[in-house]
Amino acid sequence: MDWSKRLARFITDHSRSVITVLFVATLIIGAGSVHVEESTSFESVEGQSTVIEKNGYVQQHFGGDRNRTTQVLVVTRNETGDVLSKSSLIRSLSYQQSLRENQTVNRTLVDETPITSVASIVGQAAVLQDQQTDRQRGKIPRGHTQTADTDRPESANATRSSQEASTPPIDEQIKQLESMNATEIDRLVTNLFSEDTTSPLGEVGLQLLSKHYEPGTDTADARMMVINQRTAVDTTSGATLTDRTTDAQVAVRDLAESRDSAHDHAIFGHGYMTIEETNSMADSFAIIGPLTLLFVLGTLLFAYRDLLDITLGFFGIFLVLLWTFGFMGWAGMTFNQMMIAVPVLLIGLSIDYSIHIVMRYREEQAEDNRSIRDAMRHSVSKVGVALALVTATTAIGFLTNVTSSLPAVQNFGIVSAVGIVSALVIFGAFIPALKIELDSLLERFGFEREKRAVGTDKSRLNWLLMLGVRAARRAPLVVLLTIVLVSAGSAYAGTQVGSSFSEEQFIADDPPEWTESLPDSLAPSNYTVKENLHYIQSNFQSPEKQTTVLIEGAVTTPKTLKQLNKTERRPPNRRQRTSDRVESLPYTRHYRWLIKLHTEIKLLTKLYVQPTSTTMASPTGTSLQFTTRCSERHPIKQASCFTVTMENTRLSG
Predict the structure, then answer these.
(1) Hey, is 69 helix, strand or coil?
(2) Distance (Å, whole) CA 541 – CA 211
(3) Which residues on adjacent β-strands are paired with residue 38?
């Protein structure tokens, strides 16, 4: 007697023991499911490489608090082009003031330059202009504040000193704008945002206006506000933001809709994006779940036509999912976008295993009037071998994903393999043992439990099932040729499949129109993040690009320091003016400079380059920021790190 028959005999002869053991195992394994957490973070998608390792080193030893910030972009748009009008600017300042007064938002704002907006820039310029006028009239002692008359282009150079002055309070800015008429504000805007402006305020404001804005005019269809928040996590690692931060970003959206309903708003922030990604996963399950259950119910009704067998099928599927999620909980794995496919995969596989076991059981029961226990023994011993082989090959196939350098792909392969093995255990042992006990109990109460296997009688279904057999017998060459042609076409199509990854691919799109007819309990939410992101990318300047360079080795030798100083004094982006269009610094030029830097510093042991991209930094009005930081834990002779910030301004390099 081979192993399959011995195992089948043990399961059927000791069915109650099998049920007890697997029930206890279900309680233990399933308890881990309560520890499974959802995550929309892409930290696990980062591969394992030298550059990633060195980036982690930089974040740990050089980063400090500069990586613990995030931004919210609030775009105010109006097709009529009045976002620079007096009323629009005042509403924007009132909204900005409400953000400061809102405790949920205010507690997350950074200390230095928490909010930058076109309205506040115009408001500051208006206050400074009024102070300059009062000084000229002798109302303010000279030296009280250093400002300039932004209403006159010839004196605009003096406004560079305004950065050193204290920023006027928002209520003072509002009061000043309210005291001015529309013509005065229009004149201030046109001078402040002129093409040849040298005012720091004007340069920052131009970066926050739509690409379609014509410098020197008083109308624009869109403007941006940048809100800088403190975070409890390192945002460069892709970690999920805390509820404190995401709640603040939701409050930013709600306040924008309530305080400035006259305009449309496009809001983008990583916390707000996380909320929509989480909601999209929940909405997907809310729709896919009932549809999957209906499909399972329809399949089992057609195959079994028996209430008990249908119930056992659903129960087995539930146990498979419980074991899988329990394993995830005990293993500390999170449920992310990639894991959505796992439950659907396991449901389909579980139905397949269930139908194979039960149909074979019914066939064995119909032959020679076998008893319930004997029929199940033959079913498990014959079908179990095939199911075990299928399970082994499929699980091994998914386990090959552990060779990937991406933790998310590794976890997907492991969880899928565990779920597949769980399906074999549940439908190869637990459900057969449970069916033996339940069928025996029902027969003792006089219920007939012998059922006919579907497709075994002379029915139309049996005729359909035999079509393939008849085709193979009558025209085997035609069947083979058809399969070869289809396979060749599929192979060719497979070569056209591209491989790419973008976080944007995981952001939910607007739901299709047919979902509007769903009941309220199933209707998905409205998703705006992806649309808003596309709008911002299409109509505003690209976020600043930042590259971190870690140099290890003899970083304090005179020649090395000389080369570093030479590199600092020769930035790759020399600001030049363009008269007709806006261009941003291309990445290729940035990397060419880094390659040149690599060849210049010949005495160094190693140089690592880690390109990163921030969402949006508060504009500083400078084209190049060169910063050298030294670790307190490690002497400067061991390592040095500097960041190169290339700011995509309205001026082409």
Answers:
(1) strand
(2) 7
(3) 335
The span from the CA of 488 to the CA of 494, in Å, is: 10
Residue 630 backbone dihedrals phi, psi, to 5 degrees: -120, 140
d(C-alpha 8, C-alpha 385), whole Å: 10
Q: Where are the alpha helices (DSSP H) in 304-406?
A: 307-331, 341-366, 372-399
Please state the length of the chain. Answer: 653
Partner residues linked to 226 by β-bridges: 73, 116
Convert 58-78 to b/e letters by CB count within 10 Å (16 or more is b): bbebbbeeebbbbbbbbbbbb
CB-based contact 109:228 (threshold 8 Å)? yes
- Which CATH number does the domain 3-41+276-450 belong to among 1.20.1640.10, 3.40.30.10, 3.40.50.12580, 3.40.50.1980? 1.20.1640.10
pLDDT, position 640:
52
Q: How far is CA 558 from CA 445, 564, 635, in A?
A: 96, 10, 16
How far apart are the C-alpha atoms of 552 and 166, rounded to whole Å? 41
Our CA dihedral for 386, 308, 6, 371, rounded to 10 degrees, sits at -120
CB atoms within 10 A of CB 236: 21
Q: How many CA atoms lie within 13 A of 274 on its CB side?
A: 24
Alpha carbons 565 and 561: distance in angstroms, whole number: 6
Kindly report the number of other CB atoms within 10 A of residue 534's CB atom. 14
Residues 229/70, Cβ–Cβ less than 8 Å? yes
Residue 545 · residue 613 · CB < 8 Å: yes
Pull the structure tokens for residue 520. Answer: 């309220």
Q: Which helix (H) or strand (E) holds 72?
A: strand 69-77
- Positions in the chain whose pLDDT score sits under 50: 142-143, 145-165, 571-638, 643-653
For 81: left if phi > 0, alpha if psi spans -120 to 50, otherwise beta; the answer is left
Q: Edge-to-edge strands of the sheet including 222-230?
A: 115-117, 222-230, 69-77, 264-269
Instruction: Give the whole-angstrom CA distance, residue 267 versus residue 250.
Output: 10
Predicted local confidence at residue 592, as pLDDT: 43
- Look up residue 515 and give its two tokens: 């979902």
Rounded to 5, what percent of the chain is helix, strand, coil? 60, 10, 30
* CA distance linking residue 555 with residue 203, whole number of Å: 36
Q: What is the domain partition of the chain in residue ranges?
A: 3-41+276-450, 69-230, 455-489, 542-646
Question: Is the Cβ–Cβ distance between 383 and 357 less than 8 Å?
Answer: yes
Token output for 205: 């404001």
Q: What is the CA radius of gyration of the chain?
A: 34
The reported pTM is 0.67
State the Cα–Cα distance between residues 39 and 238, nearest whole angstrom.
11
Q: How far apart are CA 235 and CA 220, in angstroms?
A: 33
**What b/e sequence results for 425-452 when a residue is b if at least 16 CB atoms lie within 10 Å of its CB, and e otherwise?**
bbbbbbbbbbbbebbeeeeeeeeebebe
The one-letter amino acid at 579: S
Residue 512 backbone class (left: φ over 0; alpha: ψ -120 to 50; beta: rest): beta
Question: Would you state the pLDDT for residue 529?
Answer: 82
CB atoms within 10 A of CB 23: 13
129-155 b/e (C-beta count within 10 Å ≥ 16 → b): bbbbeebeeeebeeeebbbbbbbebee
DSSP for 363-375, written as a single string: HHHHSTT--HHHH
Scanning the structure block, which residue is given the tokens 């001078």?
Answer: 191
Token pair of 631, please? Answer: 């670790």
- Quick one: residue 553, left, alpha or beta (phi over 0 = left, psi -120 to 50 = alpha)? left
